[in-house]
Design a protein that fits this description.
- It is a single chain.
- The chain is mostly loops.
- The chain has two helices and two strands; from the N terminus they run ααββ.
- A two-stranded antiparallel sheet has the order 1-2.
- The chain is globular.
- 16% of the residues are buried.
Length: 87
């Protein structure tokens, strides 16, 4: 339940936003991701999600984030502790 209330990573929130609404005609939630998914054969430097992340800052393109415990879950995002991605 906590994952759905407050996702810890922008990619998790994007995945949740991509799920169709259970009621026909219901409005979509969130903003669709821009750009193309990164190549697994030639991933970008830093966080693999940073080219598509609307919250990306300089460090995101330079350093791979370390997985850390946060709010009862784990996340690998440089900005996880400062972002409020709750619904």
């Amino acid at each position: 339940a906590a994952l759905f209330r407050r996702p810890r990573h922008p990619y998790t929130k994007a995945l949740l936003n991509a799920v169709l609404a259970p009621e026909p005609g219901a409005n979509a939630v969130g903003i669709p991701l821009a750009g193309e998914a990164s190549s697994i054969l030639a991933p970008p430097d830093g966080c693999p999600f940073h080219p598509r992340c609307q919250h990306s800052i300089g460090i995101c393109s330079e350093t791979i984030p370390i997985q850390a415990d946060l709010y009862g879950g784990t996340v690998a995002c440089h900005r996880a502790s400062e972002l409020d991605l709750s619904y």
